[in-house]
C-alpha cells in the first residue's frame, strides 16, 4: 500500500547528479580526450621522475615541469567541468578559460618536447616519456581544434562588451561629468 503512494514521487531526478557530461562546456568526446590528456601527461611526468641521470638536466627539468603542470591543471579543469563544481566557483567565462588552458599547454609543451627529444641521453624511460609527451601534445591540439569547431573562437572581438569575471558587462569608459573636489583658490 505504501509503495503505491510513494513510488511516483521517489523517482530519481537526473538533474540532481553531481556528474554533468555532456554539458554546455564539455561534451562526451572532449571529456574522453581530456581524460587521456591527463593520463598521458601523468605518465610522461612519472617517467621523467624515474630518470636517474641526464645529459642536459635543464631540458629534463623543464619537460618534467610542463608535464606536471599539464597533468594538474587539466585534471583540475576536468573535475570542474565534469561536475557541478563549475557552477559554484563563480567563473562566468568558461570558454575563454578552456581555450587559454589549451593554448598554454599546446605551444610550450610541443616546442619543449622537441628540444628534449633531440637532447636527452637516450635511456628507455626518456624515450618513452618523449613518446607520451608527444601524444599528450597531439591530444591538446585535437582538443583545441574540436573546441574551436564546437564552441567557436572565444577571443574574437565583435563590438559587444565582454562580461567581467562575475560582474555585468561594462561598456567603454565615460568621462566624469562632475569633479569630486572643486578647485580651491
Topology:
Elements: H1 2-6, H2 28-50, H3 57-82, H4 94-118, H5 124-151
Portion of residues in beta strands equals under 5%
Order of helices and strands: HHHHH
Low-confidence stretches: none
Number of H/I helices? 5
The CATH topology of the domain at 27-151 turns out to be: Four Helix Bundle (Hemerythrin (Met), subunit A)
**Count of individual beta strands:** 0
Main structural class: mainly alpha
Describe this structure in words.
The chain has 185 residues and is an all-alpha fold. It has helices at 2-6, 28-50, 57-82, 94-118, 124-151. The mean pLDDT is 74. It is extended. It has five helices and no strands. Helices cover 58% and strands 0% of the residues. The protein has a domain at 27-151: Four Helix Bundle (Hemerythrin (Met), subunit A) (Up-down Bundle), CATH 1.20.120. Residues 176-185 have a biased composition (Basic and acidic residues). Residues 25-152 form the MARVEL domain.
Summarize the structure.
This protein is mainly α and 185 residues long. The chain contains five helices and no strands.
